[in-house]
Design a protein that fits this description.
- The chain is elongated and about 100 Å long.
- The chain has six helices and 18 strands.
- The chain is α+β, with helices and mostly antiparallel strands.
C-alpha cells in the first residue's frame, strides 16, 4: 500500500512536470506546439526497424534501388510525422453545457473543438483520463473553419459539485506510425442531486384546519370558480367553463373554488424524518418526495437547515429544493 501510494505520487509529479499538467483552464484554450507530444506507435517502431535493416542491406550489397526505396519510405515517415502533429496542433478548445443529474446517473459534459485552420482534421480521439479505454474514447472529424461539439460522460458518484476530469486528445492520422496527444483540464462542473430513494414512504401530508376553512384540499362546499393560480391542483380545473372560452386564445384557465373542510399541507422537512436514517438517506427520501409531489401536482413546503421555502410548485421551486439538498453540509 505504501509503495503504491509513493509510486502514484511520483508518477503524478513526473507527468505534471513532463506534460505541463496544470489546473482547470477557463475560457478558450489553444493547443500550441509546446502542448502537443508525439512518439512512435508499435507499428511505427517496427517500421523504423525495417528501414534500418533495408539501409544496412543496401550498403552490404550496394543496391541502388534499395537505397532509393529506403529513402522514399523514410521520407514518407517524415511527412507522416508532420501531418500527425499538425492534425492536433493549434486546435482551439472550449467548454459547453453541463446539466445537473442525480447521483448514480451519467453526467454529460459538452466540449467544443474549434478548427480555425484551412485544413481538415481527422480521427481525433477524446476521452477522460480516468476512464480512457478503446470503447469509451470518441473519434471526431473537424472540417476546416468549423466547430464540432463532443459529449463525454462520466458516472456521478455522489451529490455536490462534480468537476470535469482531465481530457486526453490523441490522433494517429494519417498512417498510424506515430501518435500525437495533448491534455486539457476544462473548468466545467455538474451539480449532482441526491439519488432518489427507490421505495420511499408516503408523502408527509398533514391535515390542518385553517381559520377561513379554505384550502387546496378542501372538497366540502363548492363556492364557484375563479382564475387559475399557480399551485392549484389540476383536478380542480373547471373544464366545462374552459371549453366555453376556448374560442378566445387569451382566455385564462378557470379552476373550481371550495369552502369549508380541512386543508392538507404537504411539508418536506429534514428535521421531521426518522432519526435512524443518516443524512444521505434522509436527503434521498426528500428527493423522492419532491419529485413525486411535482409529478402529482401537489404544492409543498420545503425545510432543510437554514433553507425554508413556502408551499409552491413548479420547475423553479423544484430546482431550488434539489440544489439545496445537493449542497447541504449538515
Amino acid at each position: 500500500m505504501i509503495y503504491q501510494a509513493v509510486q502514484s505520487f511520483f508518477r503524478r509529479r513526473f507527468e505534471r512536470w513532463v506534460f505541463r499538467l496544470g489546473g482547470p483552464e477557463a475560457g478558450e484554450v489553444q493547443l500550441k506546439q509546446r502542448r502537443v507530444f508525439i512518439i512512435p506507435t508499435r507499428p511505427g517502431l517496427g517500421f523504423g526497424v525495417m528501414l534500418g535493416l533495408m539501409f544496412i542491406g543496401s550498403i552490404n550489397y550496394n543496391l541502388s534501388l534499395g537505397f532509393a526505396l529506403t529513402f522514399l519510405l523514410g521520407g514518407c515517415a517524415i511527412i507522416d510525422m508532420h501531418l500527425t502533429f499538425r492534425n492536433l496542433a493549434h486546435l482551439f478548445l472550449a467548454g459547453g453545457r453541463a446539466m445537473p443529474v442525480f447521483a448514480g446517473e451519467e453526467a454529460r459534459f459538452e466540449l467544443q473543438l474549434i478548427n480555425r485552420s484551412k485544413y481538415d482534421r481527422y480521427a481525433i480521439w477524446l476521452a477522460f483520463v480516468n476512464r480512457e479505454t478503446a470503447e469509451l474514447a470518441q473519434p471526431v472529424d473537424i472540417p476546416a473553419q468549423f466547430t464540432r461539439t463532443v459529449t463525454l460522460n462520466i458516472t456521478a458518484g455522489k451529490r455536490g459539485w462534480l468537476q470535469a476530469p482531465r481530457v486526453r486528445l490523441q490522433t494517429h492520422f494519417p498512417l498510424g506510425l506515430l501518435q500525437a496527444w495533448s491534455y486539457w483540464q476544462p473548468t466545467m462542473q455538474v451539480l449532482v442531486y441526491p439519488q432518489p430513494e427507490t421505495f420511499a414512504a408516503p408523502l408527509p401530508t398533514a391535515a390542518l384546519e385553517k381559520q377561513d376553512g379554505s384550502g387546496q384540499a378542501g372538497h366540502d362546499d363548492f363556492a364557484g370558480v375563479r382564475a387559475y393560480q399557480s399551485g392549484d391542483a389540476l383536478k380542480h380545473l373547471a373544464w366545462r367553463q374552459i371549453a366555453r372560452l376556448q374560442a378566445n386564445e387569451n382566455s385564462p384557465l378557470i379552476t373550481k373554488h371550495f369552502d369549508g373542510g380541512a386543508a392538507s399541507e404537504l411539508v418536506i422537512d429534514f428535521a421531521a424524518l426518522p432519526p435512524y436514517l443518516n443524512t444521505e438517506e434522509k436527503l434521498s427520501r426528500m428527493t423522492r418526495w419532491v419529485l413525486e409531489a411535482e409529478t402529482r401536482g401537489l404544492p409543498y413546503a420545503f425545510r432543510l437547515g437554514d433553507t425554508n421555502y413556502p408551499p409552491a410548485i413548479g420547475p423553479a421551486h423544484q430546482t431550488g429544493c434539489l440544489r439545496a439538498m445537493a449542497l447541504f453540509e449538515g
